[in-house]
Amino acid sequence: MPTTKGLPMSDSRLQEAVLRRIEENSIEEARFDAESALTLERRLAREPEWVWRMLTTAAGTAQWSPCVPTRDMAGTGQYELQEDPSSDPVDGSVTAFEPPSRLEHHWGAETLDWELSPADGYTDLRLTQTCSTDDMVLACAAGWHICLATLETLADGDDASPVLGMESMPYGWERLRDAYAEKFGLTPSWTPGEEPAPQ
Fold first, then answer.
1. Which is nearest to 19 in space by CA: 28, 11, 31, 29?
2. Is residue 180 within 8 Å of 30, Cβ to Cβ?
3. Mutual orientation of helices 48-56 and 134-155 as an angle, nearest 10°?
4. Is 194 a residue whose pLDDT tops 80?
5. CA distance 113 to 185
6. Rounded distance, CA 91 to CA 79, Å?
7. Is residue 107 a contact partner of residue 128, using CB atoms and an 8 Å limit?
8. What is the per-residue pLDDT across 134-175, written as a single tens digit (0 to 9) for each?
């Protein structure tokens, strides 16, 4: 079970809220198919319009996601994404833009398809990511598991901040990666901190 060991003491309450959601979300509902498409689903305690803003605006994505556009997404076309202001931008071109129900965009070599459906005051979110390698499938399954827990925390009205890169290790990233590997029948060949990372 992940712990808050190694995290800033001032963030302990926040991290416990995110950790609780990480533990509550089962990996059993995740899917992986022969086309290297990873699918994750969550129910969020907000309306689709709120979730849409968290997916398409720089201010919204910066609160929880590694896919932060350098300008707000306002339609299909060319965009760039950065994990943080110091990182090199990657292609984030938008290929489907149907507010507030569907967003499809690139993330470098990957393609992400976000679908939102209203559900009795909640929003059912489905993320399907087409991955370039098995290691990327596992890295993204574990990474999105943690990032979506942060988004859920925000949707519930609690404070949260993004957990990205090596910051995800104390949240159980490796344990999650290995659990997804077992579920999907894949063998990870990359360890965090090694170079190169999955591309």
1. 11
2. yes
3. 130
4. no
5. 23
6. 6
7. no
8. 999 999 999 999 999 999 999 999 989 999 989 999 999 999
